[in-house]
Amino acid sequence: MTNARIAIPSPIKSGDVIEIKTLITHPMETGLRYDSMGQVIPRNIITQFECRCGPDLVFKALLNRGIAANPYLSFFFEVVSNCTLEFTWQGDKNFYLREVREIRIDR
Amino acid sequence: MKRRQVLGGMGAGVLVCLQPLPAWGQAWDQSGERLKEEQAQFEQLLAQHFEGRIPVEGNVSVNLPALAENGNSVALEVQADLPVGAARVVSIDVFAPMNPAPHIAQFLFGAGTGRAQVRTRMRLAADQTVRAVASFDNGRLMMGGAHIVVTEVACLDFLI
Fold first, then answer.
1. What is the 3-state secondary structure (H, E, C) of chain B?
2. Most buried among A61, A98, A106, B46, by the most CB within 10 A?
3. What's the CATH code of the domain at A63?
């Protein structure tokens, strides 16, 4: 089962630059390995990760075979107002996963 | 007689010591060849991804452990600082020239990213210098790199 974990620090003040950490379970099969029958194991990787705040792009990663299994990505985001962050992962074999997190500024 | 024996022994010892030197020399030459190959690979990658524009060294840091015991998962951190005249970092490309798939990833930053810094985990197929090239909104390209030694490489099947 695929499952994604997203860590967002709290509390958050306006103007903070926060580190967002994401981790998703995925084999990231390179397509360069052979099985016991000598057949190439087909490539099965996550090719794209995106984080958006509404319509605005925060961070996007185009991934290749050289990213380790269970891709971990940490990036930064400058919080200026309350917003909804949308995280999407896309990959081979029509892989698609979407997660949503609310960002609330604490007083 | 005793003195002669001792001197003779020393001479033999020196000869024995000298013996492996040519082998060492060969190993050094090989590493030189490897470096040349790596450099050629990297230049080819630059040609593919940046139309042959050569990035300037600086403002980009790549953090890797100096030695990785397992090439299947190596913690990588890349960070780009703004050079004079640039307002933001548009993207960072990570290359491992000696990997079978050398373009590791491209990271793109929106205007709302407070800091162009990314952490992830990568695979490594050989000892090499991992490079990161940052593109800025004023069109500048800058790069940085870090050398890493890998004791147990990933992609072993590829080599068979």
1. CHHHHHHHHHHHHHHHHHCCHHHHHHHHHHHHHHHHHHHHHHHHHHHHHHCCCCCEECCEEEECCCEECCCCCEEEEEEECCCCCCCCEEEEEEECCCCCCCEEEEEEECCCCCCCEEEEEECCCCCEEEEEEEEECCCCEEEEEEEEEECCCCCHHHHC
2. A61
3. 2.60.40.10
| Residues in chain B closer than 8 A to A32 (CB atoms) | 100-101, 155, 157-158
Burial class of residue A65 (count of CB atoms within 10 Å of its CB; 0-12, 13-18, 19+) = buried
> How many domains does one find in chain A?
1
Instruction: Set out the domains of chain B in order of their start, with CATH numbers.
Output: 54-159 (2.60.40.2470)
Distance from C-alpha of A24 to C-alpha of A10, rounded to nearest angstrom:
21
Asked if residues A67 and B76 have their Cβ atoms less than 8 Å apart, the reply is no
Q: Which of B69, B99, B113, B119 is the mutation pick for testing A, counting most A CBs within 10 A?
A: B113
* Beta carbons of A76 and B108 less than 8 Å apart: no
Residue given tokens 């960070």 in the structure block: B79
Which residues in B lie closer than 8 A to residue A34 (C-beta atoms)? 157, 160
Provide ipTM, 2 decimals.
0.94
